[in-house]
Amino acid sequence: MSNNFSLKHISIVLLLVSCRHMLYAQRNELPADTVATVGARVITAKDFLERFELMPVQGKDVASRIETTKLQFLYSMAAEKLLALEATQQNIGSDSVTQKMQHTLERTFVRDELYKREVVQNSEPTMNEMLSAYQRAPFTIDVDILGVLKKEDGEKLFRAVTKSKNKEKTLQSFDGSLFTFLDTLSITLGSTEKRIEDAVFGMMKDSVTQPMLIEPHGWVMMKLKRKYSNPKYVNESRSNQIISVRRIIQNQKQDSIAKQVFAQFLGQQRAQVDSTLFRIVADSVYKILMSDTVAHTYKKNFILFSSDVEKLEEIFAPLLTAPFAAIQSGDMTLGDVLIGLKNSMVVFPNMQKNVVLGVLNNNFRIIVQNELLAREGFKKNFQQSENVRHDIATWMDNRRTMLMFKQIKDTLHVSDQEVMTAYNKNQEVFGAQVEVNIREILLDTTLADVKLAVDLRKRILAGEDIAALAKKYSRRKEWKEKGGESGFFNIESKQYPQLGMYASHADSGQLVGPLRISEGETLFKIIGRRIIDDSLRLYSDDVKKTVRAKLLQEKLQKVLDGYIGTLAKKYGVTLNENNLRNVKTTTISMVTWRNIGFGGRFLAVPPVYTQVGWVQEWHRNENINQ
Prior knowledge:
about 625 residues, alpha+beta, four-stranded antiparallel β-sheet
């Protein structure tokens, strides 16, 4: 098997808090970095930040509410722990799908730990490396790429230019005979392979580099064209310059060390793939893709989905235990390889059969290589490391929580009568077109008119006729003579968008306002409401599904709130809000991907699903028992 594949690893920087550990006089007092305990499990500040910072959190971008958002997020993390504890006690999560998931996660995290121990820990820049990089960082070098047919031609040209006193003239004399101009390239620190960077920054004026084999050009040489300031680096602050240079050196060293480690671990191992079995599987993949190319198209490429691999598992069920790759340390079965394929992003540039076979062969090769690297990690017992055990626990808790959600949801039912009642009560929510008729008093936005609006509201509530007051005070001429009556208009009307929005949330007969709208200060009462488009009534299956889904979600949430509240009583929960307030967070909400050592990536952490209603049930139970 060829070992020529990209070894990129970008470390995820977790936002961690600095926690000072102290000795406590009281044995049961929580350490300073603990924000909650759930049963015997602890949620630390690091655990909290890992989940809070690396995935989107609703409301996180509102700085004024950040403490409330943090507390609600902690409630949700505690709820996940409670459901996971109960799932474990009920033996939920012992199904084959969950076990396969845990198997895959463990091997992935062990491989990543191997990368951290063998590569990342050895990539710290030396002082000489930093000094050399600081000399290069302020500059950009433009070079001409000169193509040569073979290495010997390049070496001949290099010798001639090096010995010449007039290097430019000598180079021109060989143009068209030994070399051809291909392209111009701009080189900065870290922008290309280290060997190319070293060669370019080592050139003198008008000189050329030694010939290098670079894909897709083949044998090439570089000629220095011009050297000038790198504005991106120069305009950075000194502290950011240091960080940038250090990161570039680390990435370069990690790439170099990873290749060495990869060769060290896999150089003496051989994996012999069953070519017949490979061909049969590849033919099946091709048939699945060709059966519906439109469904498999994504951004001009073609994708093999996990559902497609599940079809393969069904097709080859009798052969899943058959050896696919013969390895001295233990064979990989077809089932093992298909699990790896299901967790891979397999992309085909076109549907030519030889291209499909080539892409599959490359993916199977990487799957086998990843397994061999994971086995090296297991030899070193990395599966017992704190990092691996933490990551597996995080993902499996989330998985068990999702299984609990599903189990509870499967017990719930929404009747047709419930659907009908909910629709009739909130028809516009489910797509029906609604018109309203309002009686309005529109005033100016001066301080005097704002005070008048408040006074008019009091008078109307005290019993005065809003129609008479509208005729006297309202500024909307087209409605004023009718006692402020608008006549029916659609709540989504472009003519009265703000009035429609406010009216959509008000009940018939309700006095609304005063409110500021674009025309002024408004005060109105809903005097009529009607459905104008009945095409979306319950005779539509789509509307029924929408209503049913909404009601089912509401029922599920109500049941979950009560259920999680009882689990909090069963297992015990402690929330340390003082410690939580000391956890400093950002207000940036984003999805973060985790890059895995030796290749591959997936979500940095599983999402936390909002669960806050259980706290009220939990406190209610506590108050009852006091």
